[in-house]
Design a protein that fits this description.
Elements (H helix, E strand, L loop, with lengths): L5 H27 L2 E2 L2 E2 L22 E2 L9 E2 L21
The structure holds iron/sulfur cluster.
The site of iron/sulfur cluster has 15 residues, from loops.
Amino acid sequence: MKSMNRRDWLKSTGKIAAAAAVAPLVFSSMANAGTAGGLQSKSSVSYQDHPSGKDMCSNCAHFVPGASASVDGTCKVVAGKISPHGYCFAYTPISS
Ligand code: SF4
């Protein structure tokens, strides 16, 4: 094993300290990318206001229905009003 002199040790520990200082900022910004109040933005999950075949919000496990079956509801993972006939990449069939 190669021995490390003081200069090398300071260089390596300095890089580790710098990485540790920056990591929370990087991960925080990654976690918040495309989110609004902890929910994903519609654009970040490619939300569309029409179904993808038979897959649509009204049969997605994340959908929270509105006052009636035909009006907009909300979603547990996507921000904003959600059409019961919408669809996005976070679609999760109720049966799964
Ligand atoms: S996750 Fe996507 S498909 Fe499912 S209810 Fe929310 S917006 Fe609709």
